[in-house]
Amino acid sequence: MSDRGEMRVIGVARRRVDARAKVTGQTRFADDIFLPRMAYCKLLRSPHPHARIRKIDTSRAAAHPGVYLALSGKDLPIEYGILPVSQDEQALCVDHVRHVGDPVAAVIAREELTAFEALDLIDVEYELLMTIADPEEALAMPVPRIHEYGEEGNVHKRVSLEFGDVEQGFGEADEVFEDTFFYQGNTHLPIEQHASVAIKDPGGKLTIWSSTQTPHYLHRALAKVLQMPAGHIRVIATPNGGGFGGKSDPFNHEIVVARAALMLDRPVKICLTREEVFYCHRGRHPVLMKFKTGVKKDGTITGMHLQTLIDGGAYGSYGVASTFYTGALQTVTYHVPRYKFQGCRTFTNKPPCGPKRGHGTVQPRFGQEVQLDKIAEKLSIDPAELRLRIAESSNAVTANFFRLSVVNLSECIRRVVKNSDWKEKFRKLPEGRGVGLACSAYLTGAGLPIYWNKMPHSGVHIKFDRGGGVAVFCGATEIGQGSDDVLAGIVAEVLGLETFDIRLYTGDTDLGPVDLGSYSSRVTIMAGNAALQAAERGREIIAEAAAEKFGVPKERLQFADKRVFDSAAPEKGVTFAEAVCLAEARFGTIGAIGSYTPPKSPALYKGGGVGPSPTYSYTAAVVEVVVNPVTGWITVPKIWIAHDIGRSLNPTLVRGQVEGSVYMGLGEALMEEQEFRRLPKKLSNALVHKFPSMLEYKSPTSLDMPEVMTELIEEPDPRGPFGAKEVGQGPLLPIMPAVANAVYDAVGVRIDEVPITPEKIMKALAEKKAGREPRFGPSHFPNVNWPEALRVPPPWEGGDGNAVNDVPRAGKHRAEKEKVLSS
Amino acid sequence: MQLPVESQKTAQIRLILNGEATDVSFAPYKTLLEVLREDLGHTGTKHGCELGECGACAVLVDGKAVLSCLLLALECDTKSVLTVEGLGADGKLHPLQDAFADLGAAQCGYCTPAILVTAKALLDANASPTRDEIRTALSGNLCRCTGYQQIFEAVEDAIVRIASRDASNAGGASPSPTAKDLR
């Protein structure tokens, strides 16, 4: 930053540092890598949703001309998974397949087509097992078990947390509302299909290029499954052609090509077909939810009880975290003085669910915001006014012990109300036209890493060379969101350079220090703060040498316009390159390092590790809809959104993230769904994906996208680099409930289910016409065998962040807890 | 010994690839997409489905936007093919590329090459399309990152840039590229 306080790079709308590569087609995605002698890999996938593998024989495939290698489960038996508590995947299933598309064997051949043909020569004998299609079946059928671990039967994870006595909260309420909602699953649909290329490098070690959002976690999984020292493995995350959470798990295909490359001593590539991408999935969990909320007449919430039933699909993936996330952020948005959360994730015989943009918080956000709309109507309070009354405030500690930083939710609400002309439209538009409002909050980076450790979450090295070159090394992964531009922007600002002057080496486990990955909206704050620290340290070294040379105190030196000069006499200075030479002559080779670890969270109870964040972003949105009462067809002419960004590092990219989130949210609201059906009995009765293709899995096109008016609320957050907070995920969250609320305003029916389709609107309109409840949505929440709740008294009831009915968390002494709470 | 079918490069065509006459041999069943990426090393053109659903593989064949994953390379003999690699000229980006880069129209950049050439076909046929005409022209190209708005704005901005480029070209020889142009 220039010492005059005015910034030249940060906050300026500018071309992103990697834009030229993208518009010339030179960005090298994983499938763009072609190497001499490269072989191709194809996976044989289970056609059955649930079966035992009786016998598998790859010998005919291995003997096929052009085939180099055939692998099956016994070649890669070690289990892995993204979370230490769910090591439940095998690269190739050894004896149990759990969904259609689970891989059982691999063929590596000279040509891709040969590998594909040879899959037909693999003989597999399956013993079919009963299929578990959804969570209610999973609760009812403990056998056959999909996994041998979990709570019991086919229940993967159950959690129960209570922050204050909610029954007392309901007792103090004037009205208690109970609503059930269903959020259908959907998938990321990145346009780039996952691809990987692995080689045994000239020194005999493994290198893998892969479209992954989390090279560090892939690195760990490879070391485990291949039983190799991590130091002998290099993972290079190629720029992702869209991620959205779908490339955050270590994948079977990555492990298979790595093993094959080591065995064959040749490069081995795999690129999944679009159908296979649907089977990789890790997308939005289908969630059934029940909200019970007590309110005073003025809208103040007295207590909330949320139950979620989560369809996890066939593997753990991020599911334990997802389960906690379904209950984490209700309190971060609005003040909830007493809160009970119960979540249950079950295994089913479908592709595994995982993290998709807004991870686990999207589904309950829909329920909460639609219920608030119902509450506002019953209490005759404008929905915007209701939210202003209950919005959380800066620096609060929530009932579940999440510490907030800067909160600008109210300002977001006021802006969208003004921009959309809300007061002239709400309940005033002609029949068939309506507006809806909703809000949200999201993490700016997960406060804890996926595996327990005390090391930084992100690190940056900067190398300065004599020509004035600045190279930034960081594990951060470019998935299109602009993580390279965040690093370049921060470093350029501190050193008085342009982003074009910065060279970036990112997403490579050999070259840069660890960054945990592009997930949980963590890159800007974590890699950004690490880059800021490294750049400031580098500047300090250079300034010291330059100050000596000029004979001025180093505090007077300014770095701007690619020069280092005396701010009192700007003509007295040298170019940045000359300043680096002065420093190198004075101190030797110049480099600087920076790292970032999130602040400690006061949530010390078991389960309190999911949800804490250095700070949270806030968003409000108004959606206008037109509903055709004859066909139920919904069109969205316009969306107004305001996002609490802290500070825009590059406003062009920030706007792109907001609008991209709105787009993806609108797709989820209106059309996207990961649906399954059973094949006819005479075939196999298998549970198969209804539409594993881009044509039938509907997503919005350029014709469906409404005009979006984006407003950014900029109040720098002391926790963020230059005050920046997240923007990649939060703005998606309010869109689905705002659409539902707008549909109600337009035609007076409640669609308590996502996606909101014309068919559902027609059914609800028919109910309305028949004088029944004008609604479409789930009517019951099944019985779950909930464990005894961990009882954590909220801060205002004297709680210290621990559960009163659990042993205090290991290693946390009371004095330390109090320090965390008061810091 | 018989070669695997993919290695039997028995088909040969000559096409004008980005303005250069180019001979290529390939296995006869291959699509233009496969031949461009695998046999000609032009990896700028992408794929998202190889079924004609996503639009990521669009290229211009004789000036018309087509999905290269649905077109047999054998059908392209003697034809002129333009890919993203051929958009810029004289060391400068095409105005569409500049506008996309400046205005955030490329996020992950995966659908970008196809959208750029599709937009070029539109602007070649209609120098000043309306927002609705741009929407319609790009409706076969899925983009999961941007929400399309910055893409529309970039195409509209390129219209202005092209008009000003053409006006200045009419006034004399085109200036040699500056360092900024080469970014």
Provide key terms for this protein.
heterodimer; A: 823 residues; alpha/beta; Aldehyde Oxidoreductase, domain 3; Aldehyde Oxidoreductase, domain 4; 3 domains; 7-stranded mixed β-sheet; 21 helices; 27% helix; globular; B: 183 residues; alpha+beta; Ubiquitin-like (UB roll); DNA polymerase, domain 1; 2 domains; 5-stranded mixed β-sheet; 5 helices
Mean of residue pLDDT of chain B? 93
Q: What's the average pLDDT of chain A?
A: 96
Shape, per Cα inertia axes of chain A: globular
Just give the CATH class of the largest domain in chain A: Alpha Beta
Proportion of beta-strand residues of chain B: 5-15%
Instruction: Measure the end-to-end span of chain B.
Output: 50 Å
Helix content of chain B: 25-40%
Structural class of chain A: alpha/beta
| Arrangement of strands in the largest sheet of chain A | 3-5-1-12-9-10-11
CATH fold topology of the largest domain in chain B: Ubiquitin-like (UB roll)
How many whole angstroms does the radius of gyration of chain A measure? Answer: 27 Å
Our Rg estimate of chain B from Cα atoms comes to 17 Å
Strand content of chain A: 15-25%
Query: What's the SSE pattern of chain B?
Result: EEHEEEHHHH
What structural category arises from helix and sheet content of chain B? alpha+beta
Number of domains of chain A: 3
The CATH superfamily of the largest domain in chain B is Beta-grasp domain
Main sheet of chain A?
A: 7 strands, mixed
**CATH class label of the largest domain in chain B:** Alpha Beta
CATH superfamily heading of the largest domain in chain A: Aldehyde oxidase/xanthine dehydrogenase, molybdopterin binding domain
Low-confidence stretches of chain B: none
